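[09:14] KT: can someone run the structure on this one? pasting the chain below
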Amino acid sequence: MQSERNVNEDAQRAIMAQYKMDNNWAFYWDYLAHLFQPVKAITGKGPLIDLGPSWQYRDWTCNQIVASALPVSVSLGFSAMLLATLLGIPIGVISAVKRHTWFDYFSLGVALVGISIPSFVVGTALLVLFAVTLGWFPVGGWGKLSQLWLPAITLSLPFMAYIARLTRLGMLDVLESDYIRTARAKGLAQYQVVWKHALKNAFLPVLSFLGPASAAAFTGSFVVEKIFNIPGLGQHFVASILNRDRAMILATVLVYSAVIVVFNLIVDIAYTIIDPRIEVKAA
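[09:31] RB: done, structure tokens below
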């Protein structure tokens, strides 16, 4: 372990031995042994999952940091994904129905811009325009509804762009299917054909994307949180790397991995609800 500060070699070895950093396998097994503690949880002597003490913040444990930061990131991520879904799906559907029209080309251009421009550029532009120049929203911070709009829009733009493009591609494929032509031949209205029959199957690629995308949004975006001064988990993830806080790095990675697993499971279950042709069978 190297440090920018001049630390006595004996003290450095003592610190490494204290945290078992002198042996990676010993550190790994000791971390796993203290991670899950059902006995302490049942007896009320401690949490079920103990992520250990933070090496940078001496008065805080990783459990306390995650518990204070994760709800903030989840609130921001949920708002962003809700906004991206509510706007991205209709844009994709209308683009597919009105293919090769001005709206189709305009939506493709907006999607390209949303994917290509980095979040720090979008966030800074929104801050300068709506917070500094017009004064419609606060510059930053957290705790009020007015402080949620700008970061949620900034975080939602790339997800909305992907959702719109996936919806458009799925709809273009489904609209050429035989059952859609049959539905139109029966005299169904255009909105019933598009929104009731076509969108149901065209939504499956979007559903696959929503799993990992939601996990990424819910666990925090460091760039967005840094620009708008939001105390979420994303800032702690990057700060733990800069501070070489191995315990906090492991804690944030474990939380992110758990969220990905949960959302992928939700997506798999949702598949069977949306498309009855998909069956879940035990191996």
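[09:33] KT: thanks! Residues 39 and 45 are 8 Å apart (CA to CA).
[09:34] RB: yep, looked fine to me
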